Amino acid sequence: MGRDTGWCLRVNRWGEWSGVRRFFAIVSRLGDGVFWYVLMAALIVAHGLDGLAASAHLAATGVIALTLYKLLKRWTRRPRPFASDVRIRAWIAPLDEFSFPSGHTLHAVAFTLVALAHYPGLAPLLIPFAGCVAASRVVLGLHYPSDVLAATVIGTALAGLSIWLVPGVSLLG
Q: Does any domain span residue 16?
């Protein structure tokens, strides 16, 4: 826990710069779901039935991700960094009480990978966005780096399973 807290403290200090704090607060807010809902709607508008199929795949993955994340939060009950160390500041209010895993990161990774399996051309938009969502959680003092790392692994595994279960969809082209 010592290294995790140390890295969290270092990264959280970036939030002392108002521009950095504002940027990551906006990214975090978009990662609440807004970005993904707009993406799903845009896919339907731009690609018709293919976009609808991709959006349904994203939505189904999202429901499983939400269920999994809520179960893990309830089971682990890990306090948020700012609640455990007075030196770590929460730059925005958290959506819930517990830290592990990062739901924002879990969803961002899972959604990114599923969307890329359908539309690989979205990589220049989705990969940086998912990375910024993950970083925002630590910068804003809401998660430890290990929460984000675990969520990345869980989101990747969930997306991989989801992609494997849908015929004709693959990240390998």
A: no
